[in-house]
Amino acid sequence: MKDYLSLSVMGKEELAEFISLTGDDTELYNIADKIRRENYDDKVYIRGLIEVSSYCKNNCLYCGIRVGNKNAMRYRLTQDEILSCCKVGYDLGFRTFVMQGGEDNHFTDEFMCGVIYKIKSLYPDCAITLSLGERSYESYRELKNAGADRYLLRHETANDNHYSRLHPEGMNLTDRKKCLFNLKELGYQVGSGFMVGSPYQTWETLAQDLLFLKELKPQMIGIGPFISHKDTPFKNEKSGSLYLTLKLISILRIMFPKSLIPATTALSSISPVGREMGLKAGANVVMPNLSPEDVRAKYNLYDNKAYSGSEAAESLAILKSLVENAGYRVVVDRGDALC
Ligand code: SAM
C-alpha cells in the first residue's frame, strides 16, 4: 500500500507529482472512505441551496452569469420568495439553507440582514450559509451579527498568475484571500475551494491550491469540475475530468479528515453517477436545489447544469435512495463541521 497518509506533509513538488500520476485510484478512494467513516460515520448532510440572484457585477471569464453575458437570464428573489423556499426546505428536513448568488448590489447588508434575521426567528434550529462573493469586513460582520453561521467563497486558484487569467482586471487573489481570512476572524465556518480543470490549471497550481487550504484551514471544501459555458470567453475550453475531481476529493479527505466536502452539482452535471462516486471518494455533503422551479434554469453557471430529478430538493426521496445505494445515509441535522 502506498503511503497516502504522508500527503498531509508533502510539499508543492511532491503533491504535484502525486496528483499527476495516472492509474487505478480505487485504493485511494478506499482510504478516503475509511477516514470519512472514522470521522462522520456513514452520514451525508444535506443543504438546501437557494440561488438568490443571477445578477452579477463581476466578469469572471468562466462563469455563465458574468455581467458581460448579454444572453444570461437575470432574476433576483424577494424576501418572501426566499422565505417560501426555506418553508418548503424545512418541511422536507433541511436544517441548513445556503443562499448563493452573483455579486448583486441589490443584496445590501440591510436586505440580507432582514432575510437572515427572519429565517433565524422562524427556524432557530437551522444554520444559514451565505455565498455572495467578496464583501467588506464590515459587511461580513453585519451579516454574522444578524445570524449567518457559514460562508462559502472559493479561492478558485491559489496561483496569482492563474487567478489573473481566469478573472478580469480589477479582481485579484490577494483580495480574495483577505476576504477568506476576514471571514475566519469573524468566526464564520468558512468554505473554500476551486474548480478542477479550469483553463491554464497545472499540476503545480493544484498543489498550490492544496497548500493554501492547509494554511486557511477551512471547515468546508468545495471542488467541482470546470464546465464550459457557451456564452463565455472559455466556451471552447475543455471541461474538467470526473476522475481528476474524484482523485482530488480523496486527497482532500485524507489531508482534511474532519472537513465537510460536498459532492457538487458540477460533479453530477458531468456524469449521471458523479455524485455517488463523489461520496464514495470521500465527500459527505450534498446540496439539492431549493430555488423556485422557474428560476433554476436561469442560474446557469455552465452548460448542462443538473437541476432536476435527484438534484431538486423536492425529490429528496430519490436522493435518499441513491445515497443509501451508495452505502451512506442522509441525516436531518445542521451538520456542523468537526473542525
Ligand atoms: N458570487 C459568489 C462567489 O463568487 O463566490 C457565488 C456564486 S459563484 C457563481 C459560485 C461558484 O461557481 C464559483 O465559486 C465557481 O467556482 C463556480 N463556477 C462558476 N462558473 C463555473 C463553471 N463554468 N464551471 C464550474 N464551476 C463554475
Task: Give an account of the 3D structure.
This protein has 339 residues and is an alpha/beta fold. It has a single domain (24-331), classed as TIM Barrel (Alpha-Beta Barrel). The chain contains 12 helices and 9 strands. It has helices spanning 12-20, 26-40, 79-92, 109-122, 137-146, 160-166, 173-185, 203-216, 242-255, 265-270, 274-280, 316-325; strands spanning 43-46, 48-53, 96-101, 127-131, 150-152, 189-196, 220-225, 285-286, 329-331. The protein is globular, with a radius of gyration of 19 Å. The two termini are 28 Å apart. Bound molecules: S-adenosylmethionine. S-adenosylmethionine binds at residues 62-63, 100, 102-103, 131-133, 153-154, 156, 195, 224, 226-227, 229, 266, 301-302.
Distance between the termini: 28 Å
* CATH homologous superfamily placement: Aldolase class I
Question: What do we call the CATH topology?
Answer: TIM Barrel
User: Which architecture name does CATH use?
Assistant: Alpha-Beta Barrel
Question: What secondary-structure arrangement, pairings included, does this model have?
Answer:
Layout: H1 12-20, H2 26-40, E1 43-46, E2 48-53, H3 79-92, E3 96-101, H4 109-122, E4 127-131, H5 137-146, E5 150-152, H6 160-166, H7 173-185, E6 189-196, H8 203-216, E7 220-225, H9 242-255, H10 265-270, H11 274-280, E8 285-286, H12 316-325, E9 329-331
Parallel strand pairs: 1-8, 1-9, 2-3, 3-4, 4-5, 5-6, 6-7
The chain binds S-adenosylmethionine.
Residues 62-63, 100, 102-103, 131-133, 153-154, 156, 195, 224, 226-227, 229, 266, 301-302 line the site of S-adenosylmethionine.
